[in-house]
Amino acid sequence: MQWTDRIRQVKIILVMAAVIIAVASLLVSHFLVRDLSVEERHRMEVWAQALYALNEADETTDLSLVLSVMEGNNTIPVIVMNSEGGIDDYRNIEDSAHIESYMHSMINAGDTIRIGQQLVCYDDSIMLKRLQAWPYVQLGIVLIFVVVAIFALLSSKRAEQNKVWVGLSKETAHQLGTPVSSLMAWVEMLKEQYPDDDLLPEMDKDVKRLQLIADRFSKIGSLPEPVDASMNEVLEHVIDYMDRRTSNQVQMIRQLPDHEVIVKMNASLFEWVVENLCKNAVDAMEGKGTITLTLMDEDHRVVIEVQDTGKGIKKKDVANVFTPGFTTKKRGWGLGLSLAKRIVEEYHKGRIFVKQSEIGKGTTFRIEMPSNK
């Protein structure tokens, strides 16, 4: 939970930093654009005065300064309209085919200066337009940076979690290997000495169970080759195991089709997934209630649903139930459902999610697997 909270805090900080940068950039750009717009207005007023002076000049007037001002405008688009609404001259406009519509847009924007009988219409320079668009480009770059940073952070977190899970699983399997082998040898020796003892078969089942658990842990971190297996048998094994490990107040109900449902899977690992769901259901029901396992063979998928009559999951917690480290129990690491999700989605290319949950009534988990059809 501490790591999850730290990731959430870093994401909030990154988003806040992006917002602050964006707001600051927009404000600075706004003031710059405003000042440049005023400056361009002054330049166009001088240009308009120069145009007026040119129109009013006679043969004795020195036009060198006037012409210098006129020729000095190489960036601001300008159109000179006469009193009759026609166009006398224009500058810095490449698309002359739509010059009239361009002129009307200038007039509608209020970018005009009247000089005598003529109306000077102008638009923002290319530099000013680029400066106006730059904050939004910068905002997009910042957003991309934040998204990439969060993605890298989550990828790093996921990679670290994977290393922890794989290392823990391999080490657990290794540590279990030696005592399990010894227990198997001792059970065989006891069978020879006490062949009629009624407790030895149960001991043998428990030892084999330990061996199965060690085998499951050893497969975490590798991609076991899926083979055709009966989903009916997997669910029957889980029901049989849960019946022997839970009280009589927990009722296991099976709803299985009459025909065998064959799916490509690693039966040992998938059985572990269903067991985890059932154990969580028993905990949610506090050892008293009903667990219903339903198997449906649809056209292109196989569906397994595990429904309990427990206390349910709060809506705010539904999105986090598969997050590593998240748990509502007083004891536990919060890894069971995250491992189940990994087994279903990464190893079997399926999907697992909370189909429905209601406080005080129970929860339904749904697993969807690719069908062999």
Task: Characterise this structure.
The protein is an alpha+beta fold and 373 residues long. It is built from nine helices and eleven strands. It has helices at 2-56, 64-72, 99-109, 126-193, 200-219, 231-245, 267-284, 315-318, 336-347, and strands at residues 78-81, 87-91, 112-115, 118-122, 227-230, 250-255, 262-265, 289-297, 301-308, 351-358, 362-370. Strands 6-8-9-11-10 form a five-stranded mixed beta sheet. The longest helix has 68 residues, at 126-193. It is rod-shaped and about 135 Å long. The two termini are 42 Å apart. The model has no long low-confidence stretch (mean pLDDT 82).
Q: Report the structural category.
A: alpha+beta
Written as H for each helix and E for each strand, in order along the chain, the element string is: HHEEHEEHHEHEEHEEHHEE
N- to C-terminal separation? Answer: 42 Å
- Strand portion: 15-25%
Q: Mean pLDDT, as a whole number?
A: 82
- Major β-sheet annotation: 5 strands, mixed
Number of distinct beta strands: 11
Helix content: 55-70%
Unreliable residue stretches:
none
Strand order of the largest sheet: 6-8-9-11-10
By DSSP (H or I, 4+ residues per run), the number of helices equals: 9
Give me the Rg, rounded: 38 Å
Shape: rod-shaped
Chart the SSEs and their pairings.
Elements (H helix, E strand, L loop, with lengths): L1 H55 L7 H9 L5 E4 L5 E5 L7 H11 L2 E4 L2 E5 L3 H68 L6 H20 L7 E4 H15 L4 E6 L6 E4 L1 H18 L4 E9 L3 E8 L6 H4 L17 H12 L3 E8 L3 E9 L3
Parallel strand pairs: 6-8
Antiparallel strand pairs: 1-2, 1-4, 3-4, 5-7, 8-9, 9-11, 10-11
